[in-house]
Specification:
Aminoglycoside 3'-phosphotransferase, Chain: A, domain 2; two-stranded antiparallel ribbon; 138 residues; two-stranded antiparallel sheet; mainly alpha; 4 strands
Length: 138
């Protein structure tokens, strides 16, 4: 990945912790909650965080699993059809950043993941996923 494509010229208000549990849907109305991390940032950062959460089931059993693997791709396709193309170019960098920050915080808070060796395996897998994202395999 060319790091120049990761540079942000315009920071915009960003949620900072965008994930499925912060999206409320009521018929045709959509609302967002939990803005305690609101800050000026690259808009691709919020998208990367949401895609990370969607790719892992949202963090909780909140949706049917039947179509769950296609949700990140479907969201990204629809989202990027409505925003400047330059935002898509920054997604691999932001996605890798999200993955690496999550990997760095695994520590002792993961239960039932095979203990220390399980966490190490998770981190190794996540580092490879970040590398794949930077190489355009997102």
């Amino acid at each position: 990945m060319n790091l120049r494509s990761a540079q942000v010229s315009n920071r915009v208000p960003a949620h900072g912790d965008f994930k499925p549990h912060h999206i409320l849907i009521d018929g045709d109305r959509v609302g967002l909650i939990d803005f305690d991390l609101l800050a000026a940032a690259d808009p691709a950062q919020d998208v990367a965080n949401l895609l990370f959460k969607l790719s892992r089931g949202g963090g909780r059993s909140w949706r049917p699993r039947r179509h769950s693997r296609s949700w990140p791709r479907l969201f990204a396709e629809e989202y990027f059809s409505h925003v400047p193309e330059s935002w898509r170019a920054r997604l691999p960098y932001q996605y890798a950043t999200v993955i690496l920050s999550k990997a760095a915080t695994l520590g002792g808070r993961q239960r039932g993941s095979g203990g220390r060796s399980g966490r190490i395996n998770q981190v190794v897998t996540m580092v490879q996923e970040a590398k794949d994202a930077l190489e355009g395999r997102l």
